[in-house]
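Researcher: Go.
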Amino acid sequence: MTANEYVDKTEETARPRESAYGILREPPAPVFSHQVVVLKGARVWADHVEPRKPGSVAVAPVDVVLDRDGDLIVQPDVLFIAADRQSIVRGQIWGAPDLVAEVLSPGTRAHDRGQKLAWYRQYGVRECWLVDPAAEAVTIVDFIGAQPVERTAHRLELLRSSVLPDLHASAFGLFA
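Model: Structure:
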């Protein structure tokens, strides 16, 4: 399935789905506890972003077309797009968000930490949060420099974002 077919010819759905080089992937819906963490993460970002207006926050399912010609479409759990890049939002998101979060679950952990993280780096995402409910930890992968830099925050440690540098939140807030 091409990216154009995916976007233009498939029906709107709330089911999670992605296209990896034209192969449609439709995993089962996340479990309740996963979505609770997604909501908490989105709330932390939105509570920071909305009054300051540096951009906008969205949650899955929303299609992010990382590579139209390569038919690569993903759905991060939570994403942020800076105000000066809002032009990439045209129904779907046509390009890399500035910041994404993936809540890790047993069925997606390897894919999210491996292939999906590599795609985010390759296509220009500036920062990715890997939220691990089992470990109550958040690993922030910063792609802004020449090499990715990983920082992990546990429990009461502060989450430090290069994309949202004024954000002050503890990892514990995502799991409490």
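Model: DSSP finds three helices and 14 strands in the chain.
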